[in-house]
Amino acid sequence: MENILIYREKEEFKEVHLVLKNANAKQFYEFSFELEDFPNIRIKNITNLQETGLTFGNNKISGIPLANSLHDLDIEFYHIHDESCTEIKKVHLLVNADPKDLWKNIPADGNAVFYKPDETSYKGQFLDKKITAASKRGRSHAHEGKFRDDDFAVKELPGHWSIISVADGAGSASMAREGSRLAADSVNHFFNSEEILSDIEKNIQNIYTSQSQDLQAEGKKNVIRILYEGVLRTYHVLDQTAAQHAFSIKDFHTTLIFALAKKFDFGYVILSFGVGDCPINLISPDFSEVKLLNRMDVGEFGGGTRFITMKEIFNDDIVSRFGITCVNDFSYLVLMTDGIYDPKFMTESQLENIESWKIFFDDLTGNNDDRAKVDFINDTDIDQELLTWTDFWSRGNHDDRTLAIIY
């Protein structure tokens, strides 16, 4: 009678419809066998598993499968009252293809005019803090062998000032790759002047140390005037370069954001500007507050992003594009293009939601499907880590990605 019961329990386990959840190539996989209905059955081993890249132990399959395929697996099991006799139960494991592998990665033409690399990264000093930045060509461009249209530029300036500029070239503009590079470099070059920075600094002192409201107001007006001159000069550089190469300035269409900063006795002063849909965000030291430092061209201009190459942005409303911010300290200053913003934040309102930023930095520090980690403490390789992180998968979001973080 005991042998009959053992035989029946083993046959029932053989016949039960056991479905292993699908795995995804290059992503961590784990499946635990739940045997509550078979208390006397034990799994000894799973053969044919090695070819999947997975392992079996502690009653579960785990690991990172390397390639997509349908695998036939043999579960070796036994009954606890007949351990010497093992039986085989056949199951299937489907490993889905990594969506990234379905996209081509065709290098851009190295002989083309205004050639630039498909990706780049940077790490260095920014004031008394550090900065890392990465810019990576999106999958949509890589699939067709097109250029990266995003760009960024970082520069330490005279008088202990620093500037970070980020630009996103328009996909419809034939020379957007040069437009973004030139915009970021040109605005940095404009502020690389002791005379200009000294003038800004004098007015900053009036804003934050003068008791006179008139001097404070005059200081703000003068700072914005100088920032305006820098932006206007950048427009003219783009216009002149386009003409020199027989292009229209529309062929150089690009967004532009920048943060020009210095640490004073009374705090960090951050001068900001933005045209287009790329954000600049400042996060408080205790990570309790976040502030958007620039006006973004979304919502009202849905489907019609504004560019630094549009003469019409230089009207009375341009004053709203400049910001003057002073804080005692901050934990992070972040600039990004929509290739990061769209998949990670989705809506403008989330950019001012501190919980969204906590999730974002949790992602940066390794809580993601790729387990890609950006280490802000042991930061020897932080630029390469950030570049690797920007390769994350997000269905429907395959634009160029640029992210700069002061920390």
TrEMBL record:
Pfam families referenced in this protein's UniProt entry, alphabetically: PP2C_2 (PF13672)
Organism: Chryseobacterium kwangjuense
Lineage: Bacteria, Pseudomonadati, Bacteroidota, Flavobacteriia, Flavobacteriales
Enzyme class label: hydrolase
UniProt keyword terms in alphabetical order: Hydrolase
Gene Ontology terms for molecular function: protein serine/threonine phosphatase activity
Occurrences of domain PPM-type phosphatase (ranges): 137-370
Name of the protein this chain belongs to: PP2C family serine/threonine-protein phosphatase
Coiled-coil region(s): none
Keyword Hydrolase in record: yes
EC assignment: 3.1.3.16
Protein's UniProt keywords contain Hydrolase: yes
